[in-house]
Design goal:
The protein has 293 residues and is α/β, with parallel strands linked by helices. The protein contains 9 helices and 10 strands. The longest helix has 20 residues.
Length: 293
C-alpha cells in the first residue's frame, strides 16, 4: 500500500457508514462520497451493535460487496472484523473475493473484538482481554498466511487450518492490505509485524501509541514509515472535530504532525445521539481537504 496510496503527500480522508439504512440510500451516499473526493469508505463489522441492536443492521460482507460494485475509485473495508464471530479461513476467502469485485480496492481491517453480543451470540464463554489478544495474534497470522499463499495449513491453540486453497489469489500483491486496530503493547507489536495500516482512536493516547508503534517497529528492524496510520475520529473524546471546517483542519493538522496518514470520521446521522453534526459538513470538509482526481 505505502506512499503510492497517498495523494500529493496529504492526509487521506474516509467516512464510516453504518450498514443500517435502506440499500438505495446506501448506494446514493457511497457514490456521493466518492464523487466528493473521499479516499475510503468503511463500515462496522458486527452482527448487531450497541444502540442499533434492535434496528436494521445488514451483514457486513454483502454490504461491502454491494458498495464495491456501486463505486469505481474509493477504497472500502470493515472497521474492523474480529475473531468474535469470524473465522480466518472464511474471512480470508471473502477478502480475496472482495479484492476481485472491487478491482483491488479492498482493505481488511481487523481487531481483537470486545465483550458484548458478538462475543456471545454463537454460544460459549466470553474470552477475557488476555485471551482475546492471544487469539488475535493467531487470527492475523493465519489470515496473512492464507492471503499470501495458494495453499496453506496451520495448527495453533485457537485455529487449525488443514490444507486450505486460496485460488486465484489476491489482486493486490503480495496480499490484500491488513489494517490492524491496536492500543496495548502486544497488539501494537502485532501491528508492527503484520500491518500495512495501523488503526487507533483517542486524542489523549494517539501520540503515545504512535511512539510505541515506532518503538515496536525498531525492535524488529522495520521502517515505521511503511505502516500507514489511521485515526478514527468521532468518539466522545473527539468532540468538536466535525463542528466546523476550521476545527477539522486544526485536528487533521495535529494528527498529520504525529505521522498519521489517514483520518476517518462517522457520517452524520439525524437519528443518532452522538453523530449529530449537520450533513453539510461532509461537503465542506471535502471542498477544503479532499483530493480529487
Amino acid at each position: 500500500m505505502g506512499a503510492a496510496w497517498q495523494t500529493a503527500g496529504l492526509m487521506r480522508l474516509g467516512v464510516v457508514m453504518l450498514p443500517t439504512d435502506p440499500w438505495p440510500e446506501t448506494v446514493a451516499r457511497a457514490r456521493r462520497l466518492e464523487a466528493l473526493g473521499y479516499d475510503h469508505l468503511w463500515t462496522y463489522d458486527h452482527l448487531s451493535w450497541r444502540r442499533y441492536r434492535d434496528q436494521p443492521w445488514h451483514a457486513t460482507i454483502p454490504w461491502l460487496t454491494g458498495v464495491a460494485a456501486a463505486t469505481e475509485r474509493v477504497r472500502i473495508g470493515p472497521l474492523v472484523s474480529s475473531p468474535n464471530f469470524r473465522h480466518p479461513v472464511t474471512l480470508a476467502k471473502d477478502a480475496m473475493t472482495l479484492d476481485h469485485v472491487s478491482g483491488g480496492r479492498f482493505v481488511l481491517g481487523v481487531g481483537a473484538g470486545g465483550p458484548g453480543w458478538d462475543a456471545t451470540v454463537l454460544g460459549g464463554s466470553q474470552p477475557g482481554p488476555a485471551e482475546r489478544v492471544a487469539r488475535l495474534g493467531e487470527f492475523v497470522e493465519v489470515i496473512d498466511g492464507l492471503l499470501r499463499n495458494a495453499e496453506f495449513s496451520y495448527r495453533g491453540a485457537h485455529y487449525t487450518v488443514d490444507d486450505a486453497r486460496m485460488y486465484p489469489g489476491c489482486v493486490q500483491q503480495p496480499r490484500v492490505p491488513l489494517a490492524i486496530a491496536a492500543a496495548g503493547p502486544r497488539t501494537i507489536a502485532l501491528a508492527a509485524r503484520y500491518a500495512d495500516m495501523w488503526i487507533t482512536y483517542g486524542v489523549e493516547t494517539m501520540a503515545d501509541h504512535s511512539r510505541r508503534l515506532d518503538d515496536a517497529c525498531a525492535a524488529i528492524g522495520r521502517d515505521p514509515a511503511t505502516i500507514e496510520r489511521l485515526y478514527l475520529a468521532g468518539t466522545v473524546a473527539d468532540e468538536g472535530v466535525l463542528a466546523s471546517v476550521e476545527g477539522f483542519g486544526d485536528f487533521s493538522g495535529r494528527a498529520a504532525a504525529l505521522g498519521f496518514t489517514d483520518l476517518v470520521f462517522h457520517h452524520p446521522r439525524p437519528d443518532d445521539p452522538v453523530w449529530t453534526e449537520p450533513e453539510a459538513i461532509i461537503e465542506q470538509i471535502a471542498e477544503n481537504f479532499a483530493q480529487r482526481g
